[in-house]
Amino acid sequence: xxxxxxxxxxxxxxxxxxxxxxxxGWLRQHEYVEKLNMHGILSASAGQEQLLTELLVAHAKIxxxxxxxxxxxxxxxKVFPVLxxxxxxxxxxxxxxxxxxxxxxxxxxxxxxxxxxxEICESAEDSILDLIDYCHRKLTLLAARSTKAQAAxxxxxxxxxxxxEMMEFEISLKALSVLRxxxxxxxxxxxxxxxxxxxxxxxxxxxxELVEHCPWSCWEAGKLKKFENGTWHVVPPExxxxxTKLDGQVWLALLNLLLSPECQRKYRFDGFNxxxxxxxxxxxxxxxxxxxxxxxxxxxxxxxxAVTEPAPPKKDLILEQVPVIWNHILKKNSGKWEAxxxxxxxxxxxxxxxxxxxxxxxxxxxxxxxxxxxxxxxxPRCRVCGVEAAKRCxxxxxxxxxxxxxxxxxxxxxxxxxxxxx
Length: 422
Description:
mainly alpha; zinc-finger; metal-binding; zinc; globular; membrane
């Protein structure tokens, strides 16, 4: 984006009322967020993301973006279930949940791109508590996913449900990265934020759970698969001990939370927490430490922790802050969930054919194929077998295949989406 357009889009970002989610103004804001998100990714890949960072700080828009995340999350849990129960709600290919999930994914992706910078973290001010709570909820979902995946699911999920679950999974992984960037700034965080991470949510133990169960890694038909760059890849035997970016995020967050003097002073090293943290020793192999040498300090710390009884944390008198945005939205809309759902059925989620076509055209302009290919981290892969692909569906130009046989095999699943996009 040209600098003037980027500034105009940043200026236009504003908080949305819960009842307006899915409306025309909200959809327009989604386009703004998506354009800024793509601009941020391309700028970061070229090492030129300072302009976007400066604009978001100068116009105090980080709390606005965090507010949008919280609104979307509350809508999913409070309004959407009511919406689905209404008799006059006839979902068109589950349009509401997908557009809302996509909005959430765009915002968390944008935050992941810019939260690397200390100024962004500081500009969040009190809303950082809401973001910490949001990331904690997403990491809890990740941990739950890893234990649930071990039990065989007797009912195979439908294709659309699988896509929604995959989007939730990817959003949770982005939240992990954002949390790690927040822990990079522990010295700059307000005391209440540190207390919330260490004692209210006990994030060190939650991160140990992620190291132990590693939800972005699984065995399937005797092959190890890892989730990277938006897809599951089969890992060749020689690369199975290689640390992924997601593994690195967890270990770096643990380093930040356990080795900082301020964190050690505030964290409760009681019997349970100590036993959980000592589980990490089994994972600190020489191969892992070679890839992330800072883990030598973690190894020393855990060896010391194993043979000592740390002093209990000092009981300072602290007036703990509470997350402002979450509480404000719940208080403002409590008891109105059904009224909001009925309003949205009438004004947002019952579009005419003409309105759907108009919205499709707007999105087609936002998501140009050239732009999407520029954002792709790898060469395209076959939708069926996962190998590198050179052929594309000529009708919708959205799915890739390695051979005609794979395209024919996938046609029945692809046909509804192909018809819609074409």
